[in-house]
């Protein structure tokens, strides 16, 4: 079994963090390994089996796992993932001093008894895209080492951990994630249609009241707020691709162009036209 070492992944004297696209270049997919550093892995697409410390768990898109030194594990399957590697023993004060629950497992103490084979959280698909972009931005900084890269690395690292900490809730049981995942999948597939929350409750196999309670517990937002985010995300992509505001509003489930413009103004502070002027070149 291979042991991945801190000296082979982090530059001495620099902020100890690295981003890798799975599977790692140094190891083969399904090869058992352990490491001296911590590893936060986000599954973006596909499915895989995570074998860790004598257990195995099926992971799917939007799952996150967090492992610390001493864990022996491997991933098996067809999947896309990105991993944030960091040295948890070198705690970064702005993060370590936070009272957010996630920090306790990100920088674990001796009483950390989590099952590290299990995912610790899920995020809505639109938030996962943001997390992926932040990780790729951090990877770019680490690879190109432009002037001020140490300061930028710490800033982006802090943004990633803070964003995850704000949206994660380690107390949520996997069963609740699974039930709400069906609801999220339905909304992502039908965001352009009129969506009835009573029907979403049937998708979740619960009452409407229970749907709102569990959805808010898992994602820290209501189903309506999530639906608004996913519609806005798709509207932004369509506008970037040259689709008119009227057609975008129709295809993304907005009542009309005025409704789309109001949502844009509320969420971005800009009209669709002004937003597009500033963001037409982004990916």
Structural summary, described in words:
- This protein is α+β, with helices and mostly antiparallel strands and 283 residues long.
- It has 2 domains: 2-167, Jelly Rolls (Sandwich), CATH 2.60.120; 174-279, Arc Repressor Mutant, subunit A (Orthogonal Bundle).
- Helices cover 46% and strands 18% of the residues.
- It contains 11 helices and 9 strands.
- Strand 4 and strand 5 form a beta hairpin.
- Helix 6 (197-204) packs across helix 7 (208-219) and helix 9 crosses helix 10 (257-268).
- The radius of gyration is 20 Å and the shape is globular.
- The two termini are 39 Å apart.
- Mean pLDDT is 83; it is low at 24-28.
- Overall mean pLDDT stands at 83
* Overall tally of structural domains: 2
Main sheet attributes: strand count, strand direction, barrel closure: 7 strands, antiparallel
Q: What are the secondary-structure elements, in order, as H or E?
A: EEEEEEEEHHEHHHHHHHHH
Regions with little confidence, pLDDT below 50 for 5+ residues: 24-28
Supply the CATH architecture of the largest domain: Sandwich
Q: Compute the separation of the termini in Å.
A: 39 Å
Describe the oligomeric state of these chains in a short phrase: single chain
| Strand composition percent | 15-25%
- SS element count, helices: 11
Question: What structural category arises from helix and sheet content?
Answer: alpha+beta
Q: What is the CATH level 1 assignment of the largest domain?
A: Mainly Beta
The named CATH superfamily of the largest domain? Regulatory protein AraC
């Amino acid at each position: 079994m291979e042991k991945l070492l801190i000296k082979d992944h982090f530059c001495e004297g620099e902020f100890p963090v690295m981003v890798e696209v799975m599977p790692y270049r140094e190891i083969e997919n399904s090869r058992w390994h352990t490491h001296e550093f911590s590893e936060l892995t986000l599954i973006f697409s596909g499915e895989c089996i995570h074998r860790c410390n004598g257990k195995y768990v099926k992971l799917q898109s939007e799952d996150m796992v967090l492992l610390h030194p001493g864990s022996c594990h491997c991933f098996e399957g067809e999947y896309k993932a990105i991993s944030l590697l960091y040295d948890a023993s070198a705690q970064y004060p702005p993060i370590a001093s936070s009272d957010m629950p996630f920090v306790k497992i990100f920088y674990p103490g001796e009483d950390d008894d989590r099952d590290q084979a299990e995912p610790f959280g899920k995020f809505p698909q639109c938030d996962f895209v943001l997390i992926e972009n932040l990780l790729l931005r951090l990877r770019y900084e680490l690879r190109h080492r432009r002037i001020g890269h140490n300061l930028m690395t710490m800033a982006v690292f802090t943004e990633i951990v803070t964003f995850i900490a704000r949206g994660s809730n380690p107390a949520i049981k996997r069963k609740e994630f699974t039930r709400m995942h069906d609801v999220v999948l339905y909304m992502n597939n039908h965001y352009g249609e009129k969506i009835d929350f009573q029907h979403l409750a049937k998708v979740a196999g619960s009452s409407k009241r229970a749907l709102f309670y569990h959805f808010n517990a898992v994602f820290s937002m209501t189903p309506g707020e999530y639906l608004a985010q996913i519609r806005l995300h798709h509207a932004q992509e369509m506008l970037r691709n040259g689709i008119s505001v009227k057609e975008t509003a129709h295809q993304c489930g907005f009542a009309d162009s005025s409704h789309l413009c109001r949502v844009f103004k509320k969420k971005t502070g800009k009209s669709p036209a002004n937003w597009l002027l500033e963001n037409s070149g982004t990916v």
